[in-house]
Amino acid sequence: MLNRKKREFIPVMLTPFKDNGQIDFNGLTELTEFYIKSGASGLFSNCLSSEMFELTEQERLHIVKHVVNVTGGAVRVVASGTFGGKIQTQADFVKKIYELGADAVIIIINMLANQDEPDEVFNVNMFKLLDLTCQIPLGFYECPVPYKRLISQEQLKLFVSTKRIIYHKDTCLDIEQVKLKLKAGDDSEFGLYVAYMGHAVASLKAGASGLSCIQGNYWPELIVWLCDNFNNASLTKEVAKVQQFFIDNMEVMHNVYPATAKYYLQKKGLHLSTFTRQKDREVTRVTRNKMGKLLNDYKKLLNDLELRLTI
Q1: Which domains does the chain have, with CATH numbers?
Q2: In whole angstroms, what separates CA 115 from the centre of its chain?
Q3: For the segment 163-209, what is each residue's pLDDT rounded down to a tens digit?
Q4: Which residues of 132-161 are buried (b: 16+ CB within 10 A; e: fewer)?
Q5: Residue 21's CB: how many other CB atoms inside 10 A?
Q6: What is the Cα–Cα distance from 45 to 32, expressed in whole angstroms?
Q7: Is the pLDDT of residue 311 over 70?
Q8: Which of 136, 205, 215, 233 is the most exposed, fewest CB within 10 Å of its CB?
Protein backbone atom coordinates (compact mmCIF):
# COMPACT_ATOMS: atom_id res chain seq x y z
CA MET A 1 0.00 0.00 0.00
CA LEU A 2 2.79 2.38 0.91
CA ASN A 3 5.14 4.01 -1.56
CA ARG A 4 7.94 5.10 0.75
CA LYS A 5 9.37 7.50 -1.83
CA LYS A 6 6.14 9.46 -2.08
CA ARG A 7 3.57 10.72 0.41
CA GLU A 8 0.04 10.20 -0.81
CA PHE A 9 -3.31 11.93 -0.66
CA ILE A 10 -6.27 9.57 -0.16
CA PRO A 11 -9.56 11.56 -0.29
CA VAL A 12 -12.41 10.70 2.03
CA MET A 13 -15.04 10.67 -0.66
CA LEU A 14 -18.29 12.59 -0.59
CA THR A 15 -21.55 11.06 -1.80
CA PRO A 16 -23.36 13.33 -4.25
CA PHE A 17 -27.13 13.29 -3.92
CA LYS A 18 -29.83 14.67 -6.14
CA ASP A 19 -32.10 17.30 -4.63
CA ASN A 20 -34.69 14.57 -4.03
CA GLY A 21 -32.22 12.63 -1.87
CA GLN A 22 -31.38 9.86 -4.32
CA ILE A 23 -27.71 9.07 -5.04
CA ASP A 24 -26.42 11.06 -8.00
CA PHE A 25 -24.24 8.55 -9.81
CA ASN A 26 -23.39 11.01 -12.59
CA GLY A 27 -22.15 13.36 -9.90
CA LEU A 28 -20.21 10.49 -8.31
CA THR A 29 -18.51 9.82 -11.64
CA GLU A 30 -17.55 13.48 -11.98
CA LEU A 31 -16.32 13.65 -8.39
CA THR A 32 -14.24 10.47 -8.73
CA GLU A 33 -12.58 11.78 -11.88
CA PHE A 34 -11.99 15.13 -10.16
CA TYR A 35 -10.10 13.49 -7.29
CA ILE A 36 -7.90 11.54 -9.70
CA LYS A 37 -7.23 14.57 -11.89
CA SER A 38 -6.25 16.51 -8.76
CA GLY A 39 -3.50 13.98 -8.05
CA ALA A 40 -5.06 11.59 -5.52
CA SER A 41 -3.16 8.31 -5.18
CA GLY A 42 -6.20 6.41 -4.00
CA LEU A 43 -9.80 6.84 -2.85
CA PHE A 44 -11.53 6.08 0.45
CA SER A 45 -15.09 5.27 -0.54
CA ASN A 46 -18.02 4.61 1.78
CA CYS A 47 -16.59 6.54 4.74
CA LEU A 48 -18.02 9.11 7.17
CA SER A 49 -17.69 11.92 4.60
CA SER A 50 -19.69 9.67 2.27
CA GLU A 51 -22.53 9.73 4.86
CA MET A 52 -22.11 5.96 5.16
CA PHE A 53 -24.44 5.70 8.16
CA GLU A 54 -27.20 7.39 6.14
CA LEU A 55 -26.88 4.82 3.34
CA THR A 56 -28.61 1.47 3.04
CA GLU A 57 -26.53 -1.68 2.71
CA GLN A 58 -27.32 -1.90 -1.00
CA GLU A 59 -26.45 1.76 -1.54
CA ARG A 60 -23.06 1.20 0.10
CA LEU A 61 -22.39 -1.65 -2.30
CA HIS A 62 -23.60 0.30 -5.33
CA ILE A 63 -21.39 3.27 -4.45
CA VAL A 64 -18.24 1.18 -4.00
CA LYS A 65 -18.90 -0.73 -7.23
CA HIS A 66 -19.42 2.52 -9.12
CA VAL A 67 -16.21 4.09 -7.81
CA VAL A 68 -14.20 0.97 -8.62
CA ASN A 69 -15.64 0.92 -12.15
CA VAL A 70 -14.94 4.60 -12.76
CA THR A 71 -11.32 4.36 -11.58
CA GLY A 72 -10.70 1.40 -13.84
CA GLY A 73 -7.64 0.51 -11.78
CA ALA A 74 -6.06 3.95 -12.20
CA VAL A 75 -5.85 4.35 -8.40
CA ARG A 76 -6.44 2.10 -5.40
CA VAL A 77 -9.85 2.06 -3.74
CA VAL A 78 -10.48 1.25 -0.09
CA ALA A 79 -13.94 1.12 1.43
CA SER A 80 -15.54 0.61 4.84
CA GLY A 81 -16.99 -2.83 5.42
CA THR A 82 -18.10 -3.20 9.06
CA PHE A 83 -21.37 -1.73 10.28
CA GLY A 84 -22.18 -3.57 13.47
CA GLY A 85 -23.95 -6.76 14.40
CA LYS A 86 -22.43 -10.20 14.88
CA ILE A 87 -18.84 -10.68 13.76
CA GLN A 88 -19.98 -13.22 11.17
CA THR A 89 -22.39 -10.62 9.73
CA GLN A 90 -19.62 -8.04 9.55
CA ALA A 91 -17.27 -10.56 7.95
CA ASP A 92 -19.86 -11.39 5.30
CA PHE A 93 -20.18 -7.73 4.34
CA VAL A 94 -16.39 -7.34 4.24
CA LYS A 95 -16.37 -10.13 1.64
CA LYS A 96 -19.08 -8.39 -0.39
CA ILE A 97 -17.11 -5.14 -0.49
CA TYR A 98 -13.92 -6.94 -1.49
CA GLU A 99 -15.68 -8.86 -4.25
CA LEU A 100 -16.63 -5.54 -5.84
CA GLY A 101 -12.94 -4.85 -6.52
CA ALA A 102 -11.83 -2.83 -3.50
CA ASP A 103 -8.10 -3.11 -2.85
CA ALA A 104 -8.66 -3.23 0.90
CA VAL A 105 -11.68 -3.27 3.17
CA ILE A 106 -11.64 -0.86 6.09
CA ILE A 107 -12.67 -1.92 9.59
CA ILE A 108 -14.62 0.73 11.50
CA ILE A 109 -13.04 -0.12 14.82
CA ASN A 110 -15.86 1.13 17.05
CA MET A 111 -18.07 -1.54 15.49
CA LEU A 112 -16.04 -4.36 17.02
CA ALA A 113 -16.46 -3.38 20.68
CA ASN A 114 -18.84 -1.26 22.72
CA GLN A 115 -17.66 2.00 24.21
CA ASP A 116 -17.42 0.56 27.72
CA GLU A 117 -15.56 -2.58 26.63
CA PRO A 118 -11.77 -2.89 26.98
CA ASP A 119 -9.25 -3.35 24.18
CA GLU A 120 -9.16 -7.07 24.92
CA VAL A 121 -12.73 -7.40 23.63
CA PHE A 122 -11.82 -5.57 20.45
CA ASN A 123 -8.75 -7.78 20.00
CA VAL A 124 -10.73 -11.00 20.36
CA ASN A 125 -13.36 -9.82 17.87
CA MET A 126 -10.73 -8.57 15.45
CA PHE A 127 -8.97 -11.92 15.39
CA LYS A 128 -12.35 -13.58 14.76
CA LEU A 129 -12.90 -11.21 11.86
CA LEU A 130 -9.46 -12.00 10.46
CA ASP A 131 -10.22 -15.72 10.60
CA LEU A 132 -13.58 -15.25 8.86
CA THR A 133 -12.33 -13.09 6.00
CA CYS A 134 -9.67 -15.37 4.54
CA GLN A 135 -6.75 -13.31 3.22
CA ILE A 136 -8.64 -10.12 2.36
CA PRO A 137 -6.41 -7.04 2.87
CA LEU A 138 -7.86 -4.91 5.68
CA GLY A 139 -7.39 -1.50 7.24
CA PHE A 140 -8.43 0.39 10.36
CA TYR A 141 -10.53 3.56 10.61
CA GLU A 142 -10.71 5.50 13.88
CA CYS A 143 -14.16 6.78 13.00
CA PRO A 144 -15.56 9.31 15.54
CA VAL A 145 -19.16 8.11 15.03
CA PRO A 146 -21.04 6.63 16.89
CA TYR A 147 -18.18 6.95 19.36
CA LYS A 148 -14.46 7.44 18.98
CA ARG A 149 -12.23 4.47 19.69
CA LEU A 150 -8.48 4.67 19.08
CA ILE A 151 -6.01 1.94 18.23
CA SER A 152 -3.06 1.80 20.63
CA GLN A 153 0.55 1.37 19.60
CA GLU A 154 0.53 -2.15 20.99
CA GLN A 155 -2.65 -3.11 19.13
CA LEU A 156 -1.41 -1.73 15.86
CA LYS A 157 1.85 -3.66 16.17
CA LEU A 158 -0.08 -6.82 17.02
CA PHE A 159 -2.35 -6.66 14.00
CA VAL A 160 0.14 -5.34 11.46
CA SER A 161 2.29 -8.36 12.34
CA THR A 162 -0.45 -10.61 10.89
CA LYS A 163 0.37 -9.14 7.43
CA ARG A 164 -3.35 -8.51 6.91
CA ILE A 165 -3.52 -4.84 7.96
CA ILE A 166 -2.16 -2.60 5.24
CA TYR A 167 -3.97 0.70 5.95
CA HIS A 168 -4.76 2.87 8.94
CA LYS A 169 -6.68 6.15 8.95
CA ASP A 170 -5.57 7.93 12.11
CA THR A 171 -7.75 10.47 13.94
CA CYS A 172 -6.00 10.63 17.32
CA LEU A 173 -5.11 14.37 16.94
CA ASP A 174 -1.87 13.72 18.85
CA ILE A 175 1.44 13.87 16.97
CA GLU A 176 3.26 11.91 19.68
CA GLN A 177 0.75 9.06 19.35
CA VAL A 178 1.15 9.20 15.58
CA LYS A 179 4.92 8.77 15.95
CA LEU A 180 4.44 5.77 18.23
CA LYS A 181 1.99 4.18 15.81
CA LEU A 182 4.40 4.70 12.94
CA LYS A 183 7.04 2.74 14.85
CA ALA A 184 4.54 0.01 15.65
CA GLY A 185 3.39 -0.24 12.05
CA ASP A 186 6.81 -0.29 10.45
CA ASP A 187 6.05 -2.75 7.68
CA SER A 188 6.63 -2.43 3.95
CA GLU A 189 3.00 -3.19 3.13
CA PHE A 190 1.46 -0.94 5.78
CA GLY A 191 0.51 2.71 5.41
CA LEU A 192 -0.69 5.19 8.04
CA TYR A 193 -2.73 8.11 6.74
CA VAL A 194 -3.46 11.12 8.95
CA ALA A 195 -6.81 12.91 9.06
CA TYR A 196 -5.88 15.83 11.30
CA MET A 197 -4.45 18.77 9.35
CA GLY A 198 -3.30 20.56 12.51
CA HIS A 199 -0.10 18.55 12.44
CA ALA A 200 -0.07 17.47 8.79
CA VAL A 201 3.52 18.52 8.08
CA ALA A 202 4.82 17.07 11.33
CA SER A 203 3.07 13.76 10.57
CA LEU A 204 4.53 13.57 7.08
CA LYS A 205 8.01 14.33 8.39
CA ALA A 206 7.58 11.63 11.03
CA GLY A 207 6.95 9.10 8.27
CA ALA A 208 3.19 9.01 7.72
CA SER A 209 2.28 7.56 4.34
CA GLY A 210 0.09 10.50 3.53
CA LEU A 211 -3.03 12.50 4.32
CA SER A 212 -6.70 11.52 4.30
CA CYS A 213 -8.59 14.60 5.44
CA ILE A 214 -11.85 16.46 4.83
CA GLN A 215 -9.84 19.47 3.61
CA GLY A 216 -9.19 17.42 0.50
CA ASN A 217 -12.84 17.93 -0.38
CA TYR A 218 -12.09 21.63 -0.72
CA TRP A 219 -8.55 21.75 -2.13
CA PRO A 220 -7.33 18.29 -3.16
CA GLU A 221 -4.64 19.87 -5.33
CA LEU A 222 -3.24 21.77 -2.33
CA ILE A 223 -3.13 18.60 -0.21
CA VAL A 224 -1.23 16.87 -3.04
CA TRP A 225 1.16 19.83 -3.23
CA LEU A 226 1.81 19.57 0.51
CA CYS A 227 2.46 15.82 0.25
CA ASP A 228 4.93 16.49 -2.57
CA ASN A 229 6.73 19.42 -0.95
CA PHE A 230 6.51 19.03 2.86
CA ASN A 231 10.22 18.28 3.07
CA ASN A 232 11.45 20.55 0.28
CA ALA A 233 14.16 22.72 1.84
CA SER A 234 13.68 25.42 -0.80
CA LEU A 235 9.96 25.74 0.07
CA THR A 236 10.13 25.81 3.88
CA LYS A 237 8.32 29.15 4.21
CA GLU A 238 5.66 28.18 1.69
CA VAL A 239 4.99 24.87 3.41
CA ALA A 240 4.65 26.65 6.76
CA LYS A 241 2.12 29.09 5.27
CA VAL A 242 0.06 26.28 3.80
CA GLN A 243 0.09 24.42 7.12
CA GLN A 244 -1.05 27.56 8.95
CA PHE A 245 -3.75 28.19 6.36
CA PHE A 246 -5.29 24.80 7.16
CA ILE A 247 -5.12 25.51 10.89
CA ASP A 248 -6.67 28.97 10.56
CA ASN A 249 -9.59 27.71 8.45
CA MET A 250 -10.29 24.42 10.18
CA GLU A 251 -13.43 25.59 11.98
CA VAL A 252 -15.16 27.06 8.93
CA MET A 253 -14.44 23.93 6.88
CA HIS A 254 -15.97 21.67 9.54
CA ASN A 255 -19.06 23.85 9.85
CA VAL A 256 -22.14 22.01 8.41
CA TYR A 257 -19.77 19.68 6.54
CA PRO A 258 -20.21 17.91 4.12
CA ALA A 259 -22.77 20.33 2.69
CA THR A 260 -20.17 23.13 2.74
CA ALA A 261 -17.67 21.02 0.81
CA LYS A 262 -20.30 20.28 -1.84
CA TYR A 263 -21.13 23.97 -2.07
CA TYR A 264 -17.43 24.82 -2.40
CA LEU A 265 -16.97 22.23 -5.15
CA GLN A 266 -19.95 23.77 -6.94
CA LYS A 267 -18.00 27.02 -7.02
CA LYS A 268 -15.08 25.13 -8.55
CA GLY A 269 -17.37 24.01 -11.38
CA LEU A 270 -18.54 20.55 -10.34
CA HIS A 271 -22.19 19.73 -10.94
CA LEU A 272 -23.10 18.77 -7.39
CA SER A 273 -26.13 19.47 -5.24
CA THR A 274 -25.49 20.54 -1.66
CA PHE A 275 -28.13 18.03 -0.52
CA THR A 276 -27.11 15.90 2.45
CA ARG A 277 -29.06 13.25 4.34
CA GLN A 278 -27.61 14.52 7.61
CA LYS A 279 -29.72 16.84 9.73
CA ASP A 280 -28.84 20.48 10.44
CA ARG A 281 -26.47 20.75 7.46
CA GLU A 282 -28.14 23.58 5.56
CA VAL A 283 -25.93 25.98 3.62
CA THR A 284 -27.37 29.31 4.80
CA ARG A 285 -26.59 32.79 3.50
CA VAL A 286 -24.15 33.26 6.38
CA THR A 287 -22.42 30.01 5.47
CA ARG A 288 -22.25 31.00 1.80
CA ASN A 289 -20.57 34.25 2.80
CA LYS A 290 -18.01 32.32 4.85
CA MET A 291 -17.37 30.01 1.91
CA GLY A 292 -16.89 33.03 -0.35
CA LYS A 293 -14.29 34.45 2.01
CA LEU A 294 -12.63 31.04 2.20
CA LEU A 295 -12.30 30.89 -1.58
CA ASN A 296 -10.87 34.41 -1.69
CA ASP A 297 -8.37 33.55 1.04
CA TYR A 298 -7.34 30.46 -0.91
CA LYS A 299 -6.79 32.49 -4.06
CA LYS A 300 -4.71 34.98 -2.06
CA LEU A 301 -2.63 32.15 -0.61
CA LEU A 302 -1.85 30.81 -4.06
CA ASN A 303 -0.99 34.28 -5.28
CA ASP A 304 1.27 35.00 -2.29
CA LEU A 305 3.08 31.71 -2.75
CA GLU A 306 3.12 32.03 -6.55
CA LEU A 307 1.62 28.57 -6.79
CA ARG A 308 -0.03 27.57 -10.05
CA LEU A 309 -2.74 25.24 -8.83
CA THR A 310 -6.27 24.71 -10.11
CA ILE A 311 -8.69 26.98 -8.25
Answers
A1: 8-231 (3.20.20.70)
A2: 23
A3: 999 999 999 999 999 999 999 987 778 999 999 999 999 999 999 99
A4: ebeebbbbbbbbeeeeebbbeeebbbbbbe
A5: 12
A6: 10
A7: no
A8: 233
Strands 42-45 and 104-108: unpaired
Amino acid at 301: L
Q: Determine contact, residues 46/63, Cβ cutoff 8 Å.
A: yes
The CA distance from 156 to 247, in Å, is 28
Q: Is the pLDDT of residue 279 over 50?
A: yes
Please state, in angstroms and rounded to a whole number, the distance separating the CA atoms of residues 234 and 200. 19
Q: Is 2's pLDDT higher than 80?
A: no
In 212-263, beta strands by DSSP E: none
Q: Which residue type occupies 124? A: V
CA distances from 149 to 59, 83, 110, 170, 178 (A): 26, 15, 6, 11, 15
Cα separation, 292 vs 272, whole angstroms = 17
12 φ/ψ sector (left φ>0, alpha ψ -120 to 50, else beta): beta
CB-CB contact of 105 with 94 (8 Å): yes
Instruction: Report yes or no on whether pTM surpasses 0.90.
Output: yes
**Cβ atoms within 10 A of the Cβ of 280, count?**
7
Starting from the edge strand earliest in sequence, which strands make up the sheet with 138-141, in order?
8-9, 210-211, 191-194, 165-170, 138-141, 104-108, 76-80, 42-45
Nearest 5°: the CA angle 262, 226, 204 is: 115
